[in-house]
Amino acid sequence: MKKAFLFDMNGTMVDDMQYHVIAWHKIVNEMGANLSLEEVKEQCYGKNEELLERIFPGRFSDEEKQKMSRDKEIAYQQAYKPHLKLLPGLAAFMEKAKQEGIKMGIGSAAITFNIDFVLDGLGIRHYFDAIVSADDVQISKPDPETFTKCADQLGVAHGDCLVFEDATKGVEAAERAGMQSVVITSFHEPEAFSHLPEILFFVRDYNDGQLEGLFHHRN
After folding, report:
1. Is the bond into 197 cis (omega within 30 degrees of 0)?
2. C-beta separation of 147 from 128 below 8 A
3. Which residue stretches of the chain have pLDDT < 50?
4. What is the biggest distance separating any 2 CA atoms in the chain, rounded to whole angstroms?
5. Which of 7, 26, 114, 163 has the fewest CB neighbours in a 10 Å radius?
6. What pLDDT digit, counting tens, does each position of 27-53 carry?
7. What distances in angstroms separate CA 93 from CA 16, 34, 90, 179, 212, one per listed residue?
8. Helix, strand or coil for residue 152?
9. Contact 24, 44 (CB under 8 A)
10. CA distances from 58 to 10, 52, 53, 73, 89 (A)
11. 213 burial via Cβ count (<10 Å: 0-12, 13-18, 19+)
12. How far apart are CA 193 and CA 140, in angstroms?
């Protein structure tokens, strides 16, 4: 059985990815990108500065990208705050993991500003003994550093960690870290993950009965 659960946040703990896409869509198109919502969705992975560099290679300074990133997060938070809630079943799932002595951490491509918005807005910070944000790594997912650093902070071997993810780049990061994943299908359908073999199963939310098997037969 796994000794630690590592959670991505956006789309995995809270169903907020569409709010990120809409916020980015407005900002990048105001800068002349002329991208559809679907095209922006495909770019929604990794650090904000990495996303901006993919869309506008070499165009903006680090300071400009940081300001655009902050503006985007403020717009996202204002739009999503009235709807802020955990995915169904997650509160009970985390409580059961805590009772069973399973360590929990967050490994997210979000900046600390956004992680604080979710954890403190929902009062769930006490569940997590490790938090790794975009601010804590050199390269974001699909590089494995987010998850390896999270596991190291928990003091758990990489192979003893189970990752909860909603994105293909996140699952790739987990596999490169030597970890298996459970995929939450809030943002992508299972077909998008067909090239990634280390997935235990897919769930729509944390009420799925398959998750009970993660707790069975523990000492």
Report:
1. no
2. no
3. 218-219
4. 58
5. 26
6. 999 999 999 999 999 999 889 999 999
7. 19, 41, 5, 20, 9
8. helix
9. yes
10. 27, 9, 7, 22, 43
11. exposed
12. 19
DSSP assignment of 67-119 equals HHHHHHHHHHHHHHGGG--PPTTHHHHHHHHHHTT-EEEEE-SS-HHHHHHHH
Helix (H, G, I), strand (E, B) or coil at 156: coil
Nearest of 139, 161, 142, 140 to residue 150 by alpha carbon: 161
Crossing angle (nearest 10°) for helices 62-80 and 48-55: 110
- The pLDDT score that the predictor gives to residue 219 is 45
Measured CA to CA in angstroms, residue 33 lies from 26, 43, 76, 160 at distances of 10, 12, 19, 42
What is the bridge-based pairing of β-strands 161-165 and 103-107? unpaired
How far apart are alpha carbons 39 and 21 in whole angstroms?
Answer: 9
Helix (H) or strand (E) run with residue 200 in it: strand 199-203
The closest of 60, 19, 52, 48 to 35, measured between CA atoms, is: 52
φ, ψ of residue 45 in degrees (nearest 5): -150, 160
| Residue at token pair 């907020």 | 16
pLDDT in tens, 152-166: 999 999 999 999 999
pLDDT for position 211: 97
